[in-house]
TrEMBL record:
This is aminopyrimidine aminohydrolase. GO terms for cellular component: cytosol. Pathway: Cofactor biosynthesis; thiamine diphosphate biosynthesis. It comes from Cocos nucifera. Belongs to the thiaminase-2 family. The keyword Disulfide bond applies. GO terms for molecular function: thiaminase activity. GO terms for biological process: thiamine biosynthetic process. It catalyses: 4-amino-5-aminomethyl-2-methylpyrimidine + H2O = 4-amino-5-hydroxymethyl-2-methylpyrimidine + NH4(+). InterPro entries: Haem_Oase-like_multi-hlx, Thiaminase-2/PQQC, Thiamine_Salvage_TenA.
Amino acid sequence: MESGNLDDGRGKTATWIDQYRLMYDRATRHPFVLSIRDGTVDISAFKRWLGQDYIFVREFVPFLASVLLKAWKDSDDDSDVEVILGGIASLNDELSWFKREASKWDVHLGGITPQKANVEYCRLLQSLMLPEIDYAVVITAFWAIETVYQDSFSLCLESGSKTPEELMETCKRWGNAHFKEYCCSLQKIADRCLEKAPGDVVRKAEEAFVSVLEHEIGFWSKSSGES
Ligand SMILES: Cc1ncc(CO)c(N)n1
């Protein structure tokens, strides 16, 4: 058994969160998210984020499909496919939710130009969809992408938060306990794969994790900021 230098019996993913704590906190405690939590959020920033995230989630569909395909081909545990399929199923519901929410806020999803940070994030997804990228790398990225939103929005649901009532549904979408469980399932899968992966694959997964954090920070800033 290989034991990494920071490995104290926890999974690799938990180790990386600690190791990149500053960046992780910048991704999960972004000023935009904090403004939702303290009730000072600028509604036009929220509407911009909504339109940009819809574009991102549409790109997330083929990414998830590619993760599913790799799990089906390369995973040694049948339940991986079920967890990922569950994620794909809820994406279907999520896209409908975006359309409903957008019409509620008078956001026209058809006419939105993706921000540069969004285009770059989608490009990262596309690079991870390539067949030569290992399952361990993409499942790690997938876990990180979902977990950043889970951590961010659950913050807005904590007791003492002043999240405006009309944004509660958005926060519950990613901040709810069921979504947290789903993120934990993804984390267990990622940790299991990373434990068995050769060193160069683990290094690539770590890079993908850091890259997701960087892109999430950029996404929050640019999607909620002035266009
Ligand atoms: C940018 C971004 N990251 C993560 C998620 C979670 O699905 C999302 N919807 N959008």
